[in-house]
Amino acid sequence: MNPETLPIADAARQQWLAVLAQAPRAALAPHGERVLADYRFEPLRAPEAGLVMLRGRASNSGARFNLAEATVTRCALRYRPAQGAVSVGLGYVLGRDEARAQWVAALDALLQQPDQQALLLAEVIAPLRAAREQQLAAERSRVEASRVQFFTLQTEAVV
After folding, report:
1. Residue range 120-152, pLDDT digits in tens
2. Model pTM score
3. Number of domains in the chain
4. In terms of residue numbers, what domain contains 22?
5. Per-residue b/e over 84-112, b at no fewer than 16 CB within 10 Å?
6. For residue 24, what are the contacts with CB-CB under 8 A and spacing of at least 6?
7. Residue 158 lies inside a defined structural domain of this protein
8. 50 located within any domain
9. Residue 39: Cβ within 10 Å count
């Protein structure tokens, strides 16, 4: 590991990256645009779109197989604060959205800075996570309305 980079708990970073990657463009845009306007980042990898192969597995231990391809946009940005360690932010999002990948990378880089982390977790990550959970709860309730409870069905009597 480069001594200039900050050690960050992998689990915490995975959680905020998941929230940022799944956030809709409209919800992420105000935060991302503000961050890019207020801070200076060096592009390590400019936003670029490409394909990834989605793989499946037959049962839990079966052979893997190629399921489909998905378009993904990625970006890597370096943030050098006036004082403190350098951080590198990564942004991966489904689809062709270069700005969104850049916003995710910028926010990831800032979230790795101890002086920025608490504020960004409270003002950006928490509301995005709450909105995602609300969306998932609404989807679950919609699906639950059409669920069939097979264990309550009676078998036909054989005569």
Report:
1. 999 999 999 999 999 999 999 999 888 887 776
2. 0.81
3. 1
4. 10-59+77-135
5. ebbbbbbbbbeeebbbbbbbbbbbbbbbb
6. none
7. no
8. yes
9. 16
